[in-house]
Amino acid sequence: MKIAIFNDNRLGIVAGQKVSDVTTTADWDQTKPHESLVRLMENFDSLKDTLEKAAQEGKQYDLEEVVFRAPVPSPSKIWAAPVNYKKHQEEMNKQFNNAPRTIEELALFLKAPSSVSGPSDPILLPFKDRRTDHEAELGYVIGKKAKNVKYEDAKDYIFGYFALLDISIRGNEERTWRKSFDTFTPIGPWIVTADEIENPNDLSLKLWVNEELRQDGSTKHLIYDCYKCLEVASTYSTLNPGDIIATGTPEGVGPIRDGDVVRIQVGSVGEFSVNVKFADEN
């Protein structure tokens, strides 16, 4: 099932090129979309049939008619995976000589939850004189409280997957600072529930800037795959329903500039495009 939040925080189910409005189901409160999402995830097994029926009977819109919002509005935390592809490590060392270690030594880092934005929102560049890069990633949302989860059990804690952009300013500051500005974690266009993703560790990842293909990778090359990232994250902290894990980016990372259009596509999940502009011009 593809679960979306659209327009004025309405709940939608996406099928093909249509989104069905199911806002009146699942105890959905448009004024509290994140709390409503957590409630939906916690009760999904019992709600699934009701949602499917509501999607068949509810008002439908073409995808182009609606504005999609961040499908996970307000996570309590975002754990992100640094240098989780060997070829990305190689390109960073070639350009900046700044990636001597991979995730195996670095572990995970935190991004500010306030950096989350939706698939219809622009990326806002805070500096005109600093290089800011795109990083295409697979992201997922935690569906139930998780602590000290073993690798073999990790899939049971993942509610669903989405495309994620980890926007990054290059420099010597800590990763958390360089990656936590407002709009630096666009996600979407919807959540694809985990039962529809046969193997999240074998999905294509592509990114274009102004129709130029920049990144063309696959999650099969992850150093720490989706389940290992969750195992590590839940060892460090308790993961709450609605928390996000970003799994890292493959090679092909490059700069984005004012006026660019960035498009990300994750196989079996979906794609979205966002504009880039300077923050002071928003």
Automatic annotation (TrEMBL):
Domain of life: Bacteria
SUPFAM superfamilies, per the entry: FAH
Gene3D superfamilies registered for this protein in UniProt: Fumarylacetoacetase-like, C-terminal domain
Keyword field: Isomerase, Metal-binding
Gene Ontology MF: a single term: isomerase activity
One GO BP: small molecule metabolic process
InterPro entries assigned to the protein according to its UniProt record, in alphabetical order: FAH, Fumarylacetoacetase-like_C, Fumarylacetoacetase_C_sf
Pfam families: FAA_hydrolase
Family, as annotated: Belongs to the FAH family.
Protein known as: 2-hydroxyhepta-2,4-diene-1,7-dioate isomerase
